[in-house]
Design brief:
The complex is a heterodimer. By secondary structure, chain A is an alpha+beta fold. In chain A, 31% of the residues lie in helices and 27% in strands. Chain A has one domain: Jelly Rolls (Sandwich), CATH 2.60.120.10. A 4-stranded antiparallel sheet of chain A has the order 1-8-3-6. A 4-stranded antiparallel sheet of chain A has the order 2-7-4-5, with no helix packed on it. The longest helix of chain B is centred in the C-terminal third of the chain and has 41 residues. The N terminus of chain B is likely disordered. Chain B is elongated and about 100 Å long. The chains are: A alpha+beta, B mainly alpha. At the A-B interface, helix 2, strand 1 and strand 2 of A face helix 2, helix 7, helix 8 and helix 14 of B.
């Protein structure tokens, strides 16, 4: 591996899953490996809450298997605003700041999530500007798309 | 559903727990000093070498190899620097005991001359027979030094050397397995507390990193200013003396005093005919310490740990009384880490929503595990 920098590492199924998400699609194999090294894997049971509305956001979630419902509180009850499947990301605004989550995320079935912690993202921006700018650009595009969807009145397919 | 508990400040119970835990850890450190000291050096080296290791990984170098390369590179450079310094400063007829004896004699002569000068200036000191008292104490100390202290110092050095060799090993494993260890710890945390625990671990890491990086910055600033001052008054080996004094200042109070004594001994021995160099060295030392306490330290270490100054001073005394020199040196970073851990854990444990979510997750687990079983 001394001359590992001369060749790109092969993409494992795990890295393929990362590559297929909108946020990490522009990263190279080596960059994906670095980001993957920072991500945590969590398993949630069906009906378990991933995060609550109003809770301080610290991390972004990428669904690697299973489905997650995103709901907003409407007075006494929750309205489901989106149902997300493998490859989708949610909680992405937590990468920008620690403002409260504006929706609740709940596992609809047993699912596996990859979690990207904000502090790891910020430290990556400092140590590796290229990966940082690629993820930031993808995040900006994601938010821009969401804004366009909202202005045109179409339903949001990804939750904040 | 807003998380109102996130903004709560730690109460007196949490603070009592923080102080008690810090004291307990200090007592533990005092008992396990053989491990604590290499652990500190290992941690300092880890924070120094982490950035170059990340650069190597970014170039595509394997994590194990990157850790080995930066660790090996650092120790190679260090060995080279020590070798060059040794070859540069020593002459064939100089041995360490001889040099030590030379400087000890120089220091004693300086004290005697100063006492005589003070007696000449202030007759009341002559009546007190100050010089005679000081001479008697010096004689008693030097006569019994070999018998009372030398054997102890040699045995302690022999016992300490192997444990200090642990530091590079610890650094290597911190660099190689640090991320895996963090993930391993986080895996044990229930989902409900997961995000907050990540935040807590990040804050603990940041507190330790800020403290140790602040300490390194402070050492460099102290070395530069002290070396400049000593060079201006004409003291010999200003850079070497300044560096040793700056490293000694890592130990609050005691380190500074020992550093000052060292500088004065060297200055007075190398210029025996000119006591004003030694007095000037004291002046430079005091000036740099004042700059350090009021400007450099608040800019470096002060920003790293948000501890109330009164609490910091009191805890330094507590650290000294509980764990001696190691306690003095370690009490502030330890208090900083325990403070972050205590306040965050306090918020986690007292958050009813997180506890309820955890109970719910446990109930879901039981329900799934017992599905299809007869009740």
């Amino acid at each position: 591996m001394i001359f590992g920098f001369l060749k790109s590492p092969p993409l494992s199924p795990r890295l393929h899953r990362l590559k297929n998400s909108a946020l990490f699609s522009s990263l190279t194999a080596l960059e994906l490996q670095i980001v993957d090294g920072l991500m945590h894997e969590r398993r949630y049971l069906s009906d378990e809450i991933v995060f609550d509305q109003g809770e301080e956001g610290q991390a972004l979630y990428l669904i690697t298997s299973g489905r997650v419902a995103i709901s907003r509180s409407n007075g006494q009850q929750f309205d489901v605003v989106a149902e997300l499947g493998p490859g989708s990301v949610f909680g992405d605004l937590a990468l920008l700041d620690d403002s409260p989550r504006n929706a609740q995320a709940r596992a609809m079935e047993n699912c596996q999530l990859a979690v990207f912690f904000r502090a790891d993202f910020l430290s990556l921006m400092e140590t590796d500007a290229v990966i940082g700018y690629k993820i930031s650009l993808a995040l900006a595009r994601l938010i821009g798309q969401r804004l366009r969807d909202w202005m045109s009145g179409s339903p949001q397919n990804e939750a904040l | 559903m807003h998380d109102a508990h996130a903004d709560q400040h730690a109460g007196p119970v949490v603070w009592a727990g923080i102080i008690a835990t810090t004291c307990l850890l200090l007592m533990l450190i005092e008992r396990m000093l053989w491990l604590a000291i290499p652990f500190i050096f290992g941690t300092i080296l880890y924070y120094i070498l982490l950035a170059p290791m990340r650069r190597l990984i970014r170039l595509g170098v394997d994590q194990d190899l990157a850790a080995l390369a930066v660790g090996g590179g650092f120790f190679a450079v260090l060995s080279l620097a020590v070798g060059v310094a040794y070859a540069w400063t020593s002459s064939p007829d100089d041995s360490w005991p001889r040099i030590l004896g030379h400087y000890m004699d120089g220091g004693v002569t300086f004290v005697r001359n100063t006492m005589s000068m003070l007696e000449a200036e202030f007759p009341v000191l002559q009546k007190m027979r100050l010089t005679s008292i000081v001479n008697k104490n010096f004689k008693s100390f030097t006569d019994n030094f070999g018998q009372r202290h030398l054997a102890g110092i040699l045995v302690a050095t022999a016992a300490w050397l192997p444990s200090l060799l642990l530091a590079p090993f610890l650094t290597f494993f911190f660099l190689r397995d640090g991320v895996h260890f963090k993930k391993f710890l986080v895996r044990a945390v229930p989902n409900a507390f997961f995000e907050r625990t990540l935040y807590l671990m990040h804050e603990v890491d940041q507190t330790a990193r800020r403290y140790f990086q602040g300490l390194i910055k402070l050492t460099i600033i102290d070395t530069v200013f002290l070396a400049l001052g000593l060079w201006l008054i004409g003291a010999s080996s200003p850079l070497m003396l300044a560096l040793i004094s700056a490293v000694l200042a890592w130990v609050p109070f005691v380190g500074s005093v020992i550093g000052c004594i060292l500088v004065v001994i060297v200055a007075s021995t190398d210029a025996p005919g000119n006591p004003f160099i030694a007095y000037g060295a004291i002046g430079v030392f005091v000036a740099v310490r004042l700059l350090d306490d009021f400007i450099f330290m608040p800019l470096t270490l002060g920003r790293s740990l948000q501890i109330h100054p009164l609490m910091a001073v009191l805890m330094i005394f507590v650290g000294g009384s509980l764990a001696g020199v190691a306690g003095l040196m370690l009490v502030l970073p330890l208090l900083g880490v325990v403070m972050v851990t205590g306040t965050t854990l306090g918020r986690l444990i007292t958050n009813p929503r997180l506890r309820a979510r955890h109970r719910n997750a446990m109930a879901l687990k039981v329900r799934q595990a017992s599905a299809g079983l007869a009740s």
